[in-house]
Amino acid sequence: MENLPTPTQEISHPLLIEKGIKLFVKRDDLIHPEIMGNKWRKLKFNLIELKKRGFNKLITMGGAFSNHIAATAALARENGIEAIGIIRGDELEANSNPTLHFAHKKGMELHFVGRDIFRNYRGNPDLIEKKYPNHYFLPEGGTNALALKGCEEIISEISDSFDLIATPIGTGGTFAGLVNSVKEDQQVLGISSLKGDFIFNEMDELLRKHNISSSNFKIINAYHFGGYGKTTVELIDFINWFKENFGIPLEPIYTGKSFFAVWDMIKTDKFEKNLKIVLLHTGGLQGVEGFNRKNENIIQ
User: Which end of the chain is more exposed for a tag (fewer CB within 10 A), N or C?
Assistant: First the structure.
């Protein structure tokens, strides 16, 4: 059962008083215990469309620790849908990590492919649709027009006025949905989890593709901590500190980096006083178990 609308929790701390900032967390991690955060948002209207078109099978793709793979597997099980996941890495198998084990346990059929084949599929999704003609196709990360539509509902759930909403950027669906739904006097701050300046062109392309002309956004790519899936002691310490002080768990791939970025920008006076900022918690907590298994339980 979905917990909607998700709560918006205010954060209290002496730093925020000193800097004159009001800070809130939109707790989309609390939507559903297994179909969490922006993954639930992205899947909502895709599930409606799948049923409308009479499909009872779906196929999607993702990496070894993909939140999207885990959430889609849970959604499929909950709705009696057969699911196939094309997984990047032909050296892997269903028990390689907790994410894949979870998806397999939920009944998702996992097809492991080499990185070149995966890249080819990602760039040419029609190849998958031809190979699996009776399956509803979801792209990597779940980002498509229906996913954006789901993410657009986030803003309408925030009853208090705010000036800026910050979100992690991966495939960009959540970011684009927010940009398309904020008011004229509000801004979206996208924090890239990926290393490289390519993210600016990629997000511009995504917005153009979906006919989103708003310029009420800014993208920051200085808080990737080495790249996708990379972490530092400083980031892990922040994640543990944030949970200890505010009771909100984070993960190191997306939310840890975006929350760190905003907190650091507050500390270093990158925001004007009297600003109301919302941090979007996009979920992804299923990945913490696998991360801790590889890294001696360093996230508390």
Answer: N
Say yes or no: do domains 8-33+151-294 and 38-142 share a fold: yes
The per-residue DSSP string of 71-137 comes to HHHHHHHHTT-EEEEEEE-TT--TTSSHHHHHHHHTTPEEEEE-HHHHHHHHH-HHHHHHHSTTSEE
User: Among 67, 49, 13, 87, which residue's Cα sits nearest to residue 241?
Assistant: 13
Parse the chain into domains and list their residue ranges. 8-33+151-294, 38-142
Instruction: Return the bridge partners of 220, or none.
Output: 191
What are the Cα distances from residue 272, in Å, to 8, 22, 60, 204, 276?
22, 11, 42, 26, 10
Classify domain 38-142 at the CATH topology level: Rossmann fold (3.40.50)
**pLDDT per residue as tens digits for the range 59-84:** 999 999 999 999 999 999 999 999 99
CA-CA distance, 110 to 83, in Å (whole number)? 9
Q: Any bridge partners for residue 80, and if so which?
A: none
Sign (positive or negative) of CA dihedral 102, 107, 113, 117:
negative
Query: Mind listing the pLDDT tens digit for each residue in 201-259?
Result: 999 999 999 999 999 999 999 999 999 999 999 999 999 999 999 999 999 999 999 99
CA dihedral 181, 126, 168, 67 (to 10 degrees): 120
